[in-house]
Amino acid sequence: MAGRFKPLTPEDPREVGGYRLRARLGVGGMGRVYLAFSPGGRALAIKVVRTEHAEDEEFRRRFRQEIASAQRVQGIYTAQVIDADAEADVPWLATAYVPGPSLREAVADHGPLPPETVSRLLAGVAEGLAAVHACDIVHRDLTPANVLLAEDGPRVIDFGIAHAAAATSLTRTGMSIGTPAFMSPEQVRGQAVTAATDVFALGHLAVFAATGRPAFGEGNRDALFYRVLSEDPDLTGCPEAIRPIVARCLAKEPGDRPSLEEVMAEAGEHADLKLSGDWLPDSVTEVFKRFDTALYTVHEGQKEPKPRKPPKPPEQKEKRSVPVGGLLGAATLVAILVIGSIGPDKVLNAADEFFASAKSTSTTTKRATTTKKTTTTTRTPVRRATTERTTTTTRTTDRKSKQEACSAAERAFDKLENTTISSDRQENAAAYRRLSRDLAEAGDGASDSTVRSKLSRLSSGYSTAADYLYDDRPGAFSTLAADLDSDADELRDLCRG
């Protein structure tokens, strides 16, 4: 699932180059990728190469050269290289972390992208490649996995890494570098690669983004190589507006392919240059909320936990403003989120009680009450570990008043109130997910941008809470609940005002 990080295993390092590793992002042929943060809180992706590569002197030499070149790349559609060490026992490279899915993940999860998005993608990746080529680097392995989708456009990553890999003893024995389904004819033949090689891969990307399949189909390596060398690409489903330039990108001979400037000019004519976040379909844009919440949660986990206070005496509960119709039965959202007297200490204890009860085979009224209390105090972050994003315009034409949005949120919580609490944490997680969707709908189209933003963040928070319930992670649940108390206070005040 996008935006969720895998925990470190006992075999993973805990620190690389002075950076404390927080989670595992992925693994590939070159090594493993981890999430870390700079001293100032910037999210980083740190790639640690495999031990067998580290022991290869020729690999180290090329890796050192590629790092020096990559650090000069400053294109806005590339992931900036922040730090690196080719001389470490195990070489590593740190780049700016891009909080978004890869093109491969987006297409796999949400299907082919619409024509205007494909045009914007083609123009953006071409611009990113132009910045890479300006520093005398050829990517060599431009695939859907090496293009990330950010709110303001695509990002090209891992440029130069394949060149270093080409120096390993394995490839020197005859293996080519590249992903078979996205390789160029010259790579298949084992000939020298140039900037035109990346242009061929760029055509591949456009076809994949528009259709969900490679331009030369799928199959075993030999079959793919034969089609790349001998057959025309299948451009069925490729947008008509950019099909001619994509066909030229996929020309067999490097000299017949267009320059990146030509690709940018042609694709740019058909790219709908919208505000940040609006270049992608809604289904993909929604994924960014998960990345925000996951980053925030991991980042906050680096801080020393707040000491728990002893729970207040039971009589303190009588001071809460609970409406006659039940905790969630008031006419305004402030009555729903009666958290003014619920501090982090109560949230922590409630979370502990919930997870203890979720593991039991029976359900009691006390457990149900605890679960409801926990539900009303799980919220998403006000602060973000990533850079601020430009506010996007909503596509909703029918605006809701502030009171309508708050009332819709009240109904969402009422629905949860009427849900039977289960001892099965997966069923409870499903209830949280439904609440998350309902809150997102409550905020959609709200005329008050602040309320809309708060409800959106609250929706993301309950989605993350559902993840924690499903994965049985009480510690993460408690930390999130305790740290986000102020956000709910702000929402309460907004709906009261």
UniProtKB/TrEMBL annotation:
Please name the CDD domains in this protein's record. Answer: STKc_PknB_like
Compositional bias, Basic and acidic residues, is annotated for 300-321
Q: Which InterPro entries match?
A: Kinase-like_dom_sf, Prot_kinase_dom, Protein_kinase_ATP_BS, Tyr_kinase_AS
Domain named Protein kinase: which ranges? Answer: 19-273
Specify which residues bind ATP according to the UniProt entry for this protein: K47
Q: What residue stretch is flagged as signal peptide?
A: none
Kindly list any coiled-coil regions of this protein. none
| Keyword tags | ATP-binding, Kinase, Nucleotide-binding, Transferase
Which Pfam families does this chain map to?
A: Pkinase
Q: Where is the composition biased (Low complexity)?
A: 359-395
Q: In the UniProt record, does the keyword Ubl conjugation occur?
A: no
Q: Name one GO molecular function term.
A: ATP binding
Annotated spans, Disordered: 298-323, 359-404
Q: What is this protein called?
A: Protein kinase domain-containing protein
